[in-house]
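> forwarded from #structure-qc
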């Protein structure tokens, strides 16, 4: 969804300069990650509430045909390294 991507880009624009490609993770990454998860969790609650059983079934039947970007984005909510990599890619 274009609106979601705009909100995500705005969030990344706000925080991307904090990230660098060093092996050591900065403490600020944790607070940015927690803010990201809290904020975008609301979107997923609304989204899953909106989905009906038929849409869920349709998704399950065609998930292999869907673009990988949504799955990559979902991974950023549960995997800190994927979250950090998203910011490093954005910064590049």
């Amino acid at each position: 969804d274009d609106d979601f991507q705009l909100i995500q880009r705005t969030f990344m624009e706000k925080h991307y300069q904090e990230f660098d490609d060093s092996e050591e993770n900065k403490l600020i990454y944790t607070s940015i990650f927690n803010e990201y998860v809290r904020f975008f969790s609301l979107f997923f609650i609304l989204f899953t509430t909106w989905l009906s059983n038929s849409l869920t079934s349709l998704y399950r039947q065609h998930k292999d045909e869907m673009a990988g970007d949504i799955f990559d984005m979902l991974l950023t909510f549960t995997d800190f390294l994927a979250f950090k990599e998203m910011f490093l890619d954005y910064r590049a």
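QC bot note: The two ends are 23 Å apart (CA to CA). The chain is about 75% helix and 0% strand.
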